[in-house]
Amino acid sequence: MLPLTFPLHRQILLKRRIWSSCCRRLAAMSSLLIHQPHYSWLKELGLTEDNDGVYNGTWGGRGEVVTSYCPANNLPIARVRQATLEEYNETVIKAKEAWQVWADVPAPKRGEIVRQIGDALRKKISVLGHLVSLEMGKILVEGVGEVQEYVDICDYAVGLSRIVGGPILPSERPGHALIEQWNPVGLVGIITAFNFPVAVYGWNNALALICGDVCLWKGAPTTSLTSVAVTKIIAQVLEDNNLPGAICSLTCGGADIGNAIAKDESVDLVSFTGSTNVGKQVALKVQERFGRNLLELGGNNAIIVFEDADLNLVTPSVLFAAVGTAGQRCTTARRLFLHESIHDDIVQKLSKAYAQVRIGDPWESDTLCGPLHTKQSVEMFLSAIEQAKCEGGTVVCGGKIIDRSGNFVEPTIMTGLAHDSPIVHKETFAPILYIIKFKTEAEAFAWNNEVKQGLSSSIFTKDLGRIFRWLGPKGSDCGIVNVNIPTSGAEIGGAFGGEKHTGGGRESGSDSWKHYMRRSTW
Ligand code: NAD
Questions:
Q1: Homologous superfamily of 78-297+503-521 in CATH?
Q2: Which residue of 207, 361, 376, 447 is most buried, as measured by CB atoms within 10 A?
Q3: CB distance 262 to ligand 1 below 6 Å
Q4: CA 27–ligand 1 middle distance (angstroms)
């Protein structure tokens, strides 16, 4: 009740304001996708309209409330309360306490917990894949495939939990044993990008856990619902095993929380996946405190097609690598070098194939290309096309935004640019492919290597000598060097990562586990 002394007209005005604000809130509530019957499956992941974005054994979130939007229609899905810096600090303390427990669990038993996490993810693979598709915008098979990658790395890590260790070396001292022992680093801060909101965390989390580390995750703010849903699945496993939840902590947030992780001496390893620009800032901060980091940054990946290649392989491979995930993979093919003798033929075949790509809602089974993640991504796409035109490029197909709700653009092919044009050397996170003619092998290899980034690369050829030159010291300088397959995609068994401005880190298989441990020689 308003005091009677309050002037009547002001009372009416105020009541109207309160009423309209209530209406707005009600409208906002009912317009959330989570309230629509069609999206009731979100509740299977424990999500509600307002979700806590902090987990350290208990759930919280006293920071900014962030709404997650669906890139296919820009409608709000649900909200997540982000972490404050105070909550971040509280979480680090709890994670460090949890490490005291976790480090004492024998490695194969840690593997057993990771096996249970993998099984829990298997049970939710479809519903979690749908959430990835809804919130990130990638097509459903890719969303489900991403959860599968987490499941696979769990399987891999379970086996690894029984074999990680160092050698016993011959000692020059009589009666002495020379042993290398690996111990966990402690707390791993994991900062991830929007485009792989499940798999990248999974790659880090499964390996870090079997190594005896605890994890603190900060995903991209635009995919906070996925971070919360994944953490709920893991938290249940930890709880069922009477283990502290802070072993797998979560602090949703933006640059403020990422920056806190980078600067924090309590974080023993910072694993950062994201753009080269932000990665550099993070790396410098970590370096300043002599911390450890593992960087997985931007790529600018090329495919080279020689005149002797099996040309039937080329069109589907390039299409998959350049258009898949709407050009938003770190391994997306952005540059295509074609031998001059086959250039026109391949450009024509690719244009035909591009015209048949079904663009639409990512969860529809016949869609091949979904939307870009945000409205800003669409702006970046348009500005790259304009810059490429200014630098002499011609649009062969695509080049425009699609007139419908959501962040849809046409997959684009451009020709006529010089191999060293500024735009060709830039990673634009969108489906734009620059096609460039070459004459000689030496020229094509040099162009592959001349960009700052060094993530993925492919050649298409049947010439064995050339394949070995490509794989050898004067061949591709990238972390992923492919032959007769496209640039995108990765297998968890091999080490994944890239050189130069891609950061030099290696995640996933092979001996990547060594990043998550410290070595002592005795
Ligand atoms: P981004 O660099 O904008 O953000 C990545 C993460 O960093 C997010 O969680 C973000 O909130 C956080 N962040 C932002 N500012 C920060 C700061 N000042 N300090 C600490 N953290 C901060 O990247 P993005 O747009 O989310 O992802 C796309 C980029 O990620 C592309 O460049 C892509 O190539 C790269 N990527 C690389 C790999 C790889 O394995 N090499 C994998 C996936 C994505």
A1: Aldehyde Dehydrogenase; Chain A, domain 1 (3.40.605.10)
A2: 207
A3: yes
A4: 33
